[in-house]
# Entry
Amino acid sequence: MSMSAAPDHAPEDIEQCERSAQVGELTCHVEDAPPPDASVRQRDADLFRGFGLKPGDFADGLVVDVGAGPYLRTKYFRDAQIAVIEPLADEYRRQAPWSDLNDAAAVYSQPAEQSVAELLGQAACVLSLNAIDHAFEPWRILANMRSYLKPDGLMLVSVDVHDVDEDDLHPVALTPALLTELAVNAGLAIERRYLYTPHGRNYGHGFAYTIVARPRAAGEPDGSDSPLIPLRSTGQLAWEEISDRAGSVARRVKRVVTGESRTVKRWLGKAA
Ligand SMILES: C[S@@+](CC[C@H](N)C(=O)[O-])C[C@H]1O[C@@H](n2cnc3c(N)ncnc32)[C@H](O)[C@@H]1O
# Structure
C-alpha cells in the first residue's frame, strides 16, 4: 500500500460517513435519476467507446462492475455475463423499480473493499466508473479488482479527481499520480490513460482520470508513463466552463428573485 494513501480514519468515523454517504447516494441515484432509456444507453456506449472498448470485447466472458449504481451500464458488453459489487444494490433494487441490476448474473450487495471469493481469477474485465472516490479505502478496492482478473483480463478505473468534499459523498482525494501508484502497487501494467470523459470534464467534480490496465508480468514495465489521452478539446472545455458559469449565475439570480437566497435573507434579517 502507498504510504501517501494510508488510511487515517477511525473505524467509527468511516462507519458514520459511510452511512451518510449512502443516504446521499440513494437520493442522487433513486430520486433524482431518470430510468435507463435510450439516451442513457447511448451515453454508456459513447463512454465505453471513448475508452477504446467495443461491445463484443468480452463476449462469453465475465465483466465485474464495481460500484455499479442502479443502472447496469455494462449491458453495453454484448453476450458478456455481468457481476455487480455495489453496497447499495439491495436498496437500489428495492427503491428503484426501474433498476436493471437484476439482469446481472450475480449481484453482491456489499462494499468492494470486501473480497468476493467466487470471483477470484474469473473476470475478462473488471471495471469501475465514478465510484472509488466514494469509498474510504480505494487501495483495497483496486487490489480486490485486480484479484478478480484472469491473467489476460482488462481492468478499467475511471474516477473524478478532486479535493475531499464537504458533502461526505467523496471522502478520498485522489490524484492521477496517486491512482497510478495504487494501480501499479496492485500489480497492474497500465496500457493507456485518459483525461476527462467523452461527455465533459468530469462526472461531477474536478476532472475525470481513467486508467486501462492488465495484470503485470514479472519484469514488465508498469506503464505509469503511458500516453494520457484527452477526451475533450481545449475549445470544448472552454465552452463548457463558460456555460457552467453562466448556469451558476442564472441559478443565483433565480434564488434571489424567488427569495430563496440565504445571503439576501441574512441581509434582510440584519436590516429589520
Ligand atoms: C456516483 S455513483 C456511480 C454509479 C455508476 N458506476 C455509474 O457510473 O452510474 C457511485 C457508486 O459507488 C458506490 N460505492 C460507494 N462506496 C462504495 C464501495 N466502498 N464499494 C463499492 N461501491 C461503492 C455507491 O453506492 C454508488 O452507487
About this structure: Residues 25, 29, 66-69, 71, 73, 85-88, 111-113, 129-131, 134-135 surround S-adenosylmethionine (CB under 6 Å). The chain has two domains: 3-232, 236-271.
